[in-house]
From TrEMBL:
It comes from Actinomadura rugatobispora. Pfam families: HTH_30 (PF13556), PucR-like_N (PF25906). Residues 334-392 form the PucR C-terminal helix-turn-helix domain. Residues 16-179 form the PucR-like N-terminal domain. This is Helix-turn-helix domain-containing protein.
Amino acid sequence: MARIHDSAGRDRRPGRLPPRIATVLRPELDSLAEDIMSEIRRTIPEYGEPPDSGARLELRASVEQTLRTFVDQISGSDESRDRRDQLCRALGRSEAYRGRSLDALQAAYRTGVQVAWRRVAEVGRRHGLSSTVMSQLADALFAYIDELASLSVEGFEEARSRTDDERAELQRRLLWMLVERPRPSRAALERAADAAGWSLPAEVTPVALPPRARCVRAALGDDVLADLGGAEPHLVLPGPLDADRRAVLLAALPERRAATGLTVPPGEAADSLRWARRTLALVDTGIVEDAGLTAAEDHLLELWLLADGALLDQVARRRLAVLARMGATQRLRLTETLGAWLETQGNAVETAKRLQVHPQTVRYRLRQITEAFGEQLTDPESRFALEAVLRAGRLRERSPSLR
């Protein structure tokens, strides 16, 4: 059952619709949302932005939710109404934060209800709904859109009453919740994002910046959360780092140096930022090549192998103990040979090619290795541990500070 707010803020209810209307409308919602978004993009320039822009994503989430809530209310359920109210108010706040009037949003509402009514009329004819029911449905739909617009006006006025400093503080608080421990609940993040006028996306991508990094904040866009003044400056981008977002990010970083974390759900942003910071540290030590904008996703193995240096030392000490009794030259040769042999899955010829020595030399060394390591070379778990330790050791050799 649809509701609208009168000027006193009370609810008025249009006539009750047959619950079966919800059954015939629900299968239409996904395609209807797509049709509405297509028409809005075509007719309203303010929403003709890239698909992953904050405004577009926010509007799409609101369209999908308001359609679901309308059908839910026809079926007699109000469970999704609070979420719809949050999203509609957030749309109004976003327009205020972007320095725009409500003209574009109101035009989007008008466009949405026109597309929705055409679909509803088509469904009504297809299912043989009576003229009385269609009239009630029209009243409910147009009353519902008035309610949505009213909620957005509330959000718009609320945002205009806040100072820029208040908004910045709310966004700093939201960013802190995203990247610090303990992990917040989705509901807590939604409340903080709603208050800050930030549409909480399904995924985020944290970015670690070097200390005292120069960053053109205005070039990042309003939908990017940023802490540029701390000892470990960082950003949180909504959605994945696609080509458009990457170009914007590089334009905002004159020194063109940063590390991006993995694209994850908002509740996992703290882990992703930690990986991004660790990637940046590996770039600083020379273990990972500086790609300008270095992606942690491209170096997951290095991050894993070097996650705990002290623990790695302990594993290496135990797994490679038999080499400690050898001279430095022999130990180096056998270590290189063992690593290459494990990586080539026990192929002596391929090992020789990798080391650029004669196969007979490799076979001689392998006899020494077999004598030293014994059953470790036939046990799958031991072989895995040996290969991991040797790979990590080679990575550490790239940086004197980690040896």
